[in-house]
Design brief:
The protein has 340 residues and is α/β, with parallel strands linked by helices. It has 14 helices and 9 strands. Strands 1, 2, 3, 4, 5, 6, 7, 8 and 9 form a 9-stranded mixed β-sheet that branches. Strand 1 (17-23), helix 1 (30-38) and strand 2 form a beta-alpha-beta unit. The longest helix has 20 residues, at 320-339. The chain is globular. The N and C termini lie far apart (76 Å).
């Protein structure tokens, strides 16, 4: 643990961290979420909570918590402003050197803020620091831990395929978020658009810590579950704007990784082979998602038998077709044995 005490005057030199947390109808989880921040080992915090016109008991819960912790500051909306406007409002009000995101239904590990501040203090070239998370169910049961790309070059590369930065666990330099606000046009994928804009348009550095620093809750009523299809559509538009080199690649990429409607042309073959070659140089754990999408697309192209077989052969992917062929041949052998 880094020493944040000034040797000369004995005063604390820990930089202030502003934790911003939008809240909407989350009475079931909000107390546990806020407590996971107030109980952080890193204590120099201001905790900014925005109740976005909740109709349940959310406001009463956070109001009661604010009475017992002067670091908690509450904004209450009379109308529902949605997540993007609420986030930008909280970022504008933040006074810290760093801004940490937090969702009202997740749980931060006790050393989360400390680990991220230490990393940022030791890596002045980094603008946004993420981390791995562990999925938990609605009732708290824990599932697998994620394995996100960690180095900047890998984060940048995988932004072309999916969002490799979990929004609720990022810690960013305040001036970066203040000067580059979330865009309302990309509601439900506002974080993904911001990461692509920061990296591809402005050249900012984003990295992920290897550690698991957040318990990420998944349930049927959350935004990512309700708006999954819309998120994918918006993500495809974002990739077309920021991460693709030309229009042709953008169209093929969208077909392969999202719609699946593009014919398996010669250009498609070249593109897939290039992507597969690039993926071989990347961390295996981060490549799995991209390769799974490639395989899914190829399986949808089975009618184009010649190109399909060529690609599957070149990529070295075991297919359902190959498995079926083996089973059919085995059945024939058994049938022949019985007859003879």
């Amino acid at each position: 643990m880094q020493n944040y005490i000034n040797a000369e005057n004995g005063k604390c030199t820990m930089p202030l961290v502003s934790v911003v947390m939008p809240c909407f109808n989350c009475e079931k989880y909000i107390q546990e979420a806020v407590m996971s921040i107030t109980n952080q080992s890193y204590q120099n915090l201001e905790i900014l909570l925005a109740d976005d016109c909740s109709v349940d008991g959310t406001f009463k819960i956070i109001q009661s918590m604010a009475e017992h912790d002067e670091r908690i500051h509450i904004i209450r909306h009379c109308t529902n402003k949605k997540i993007v406007n609420t986030l930008n409002e909280l970022v504008c009000k933040a006074k810290g050197k760093y801004i940490a995101r937090m969702d009202a239904d997740d749980i931060s590990r006790p050393d989360r803020i400390l680990r991220q501040v230490e990393y940022m203090e030791n890596h002045p070239d980094c603008s946004v620091c993420g981390a791995n998370v562990r999925y938990i169910a609605d009732h708290g049961k824990k599932f697998e831990k994620t394995s996100m790309p960690e180095e900047y070059a890998d984060v940048k590369y995988f932004l072309k395929f999916f969002n490799p930065v979990f929004h609720p666990v990022i810690l960013a330099r305040a001036e970066v978020l203040k000067n580059h606000p979330y865009d309302q046009e990309y509601l439900y994928a506002e974080d993904y658009e911001l990461w692509c804009r920061l990296v591809y348009k402005n050249g900012f550095n984003i990295a992920n810590l290897h550690e698991e620093l957040l318990l990420y809750r998944t349930y049927s009523g959350q935004t990512s579950s309700i708006h999954h299809k819309l998120q994918n559509k918006i993500a495809a538009d974002i990739q077309k704007i920021y991460t693709m080199q030309n229009e042709r690649d953008a169209d093929i990429h969208h077909a392969v990784f999202y719609s699946g409607r593009h014919g398996c042309t010669a250009d498609t073959v070249k593109y897939i082979l290039r992507i597969q070659k690039e993926l071989k140089t990347k961390p295996v754990y981060a490549s799995i998602a991209a390769e799974a999408k490639l395989l899914s697309y190829l399986r949808r192209q089975r009618k184009n038998t010649l190109i399909f077989r060529l690609l599957m052969s070149r990529l070295g992917i075991m297919t359902v077709m190959k498995d079926r062929k083996k089973k059919e041949m085995r059945k024939r052998e058994l049938k022949y044995d019985v007859k003879s």
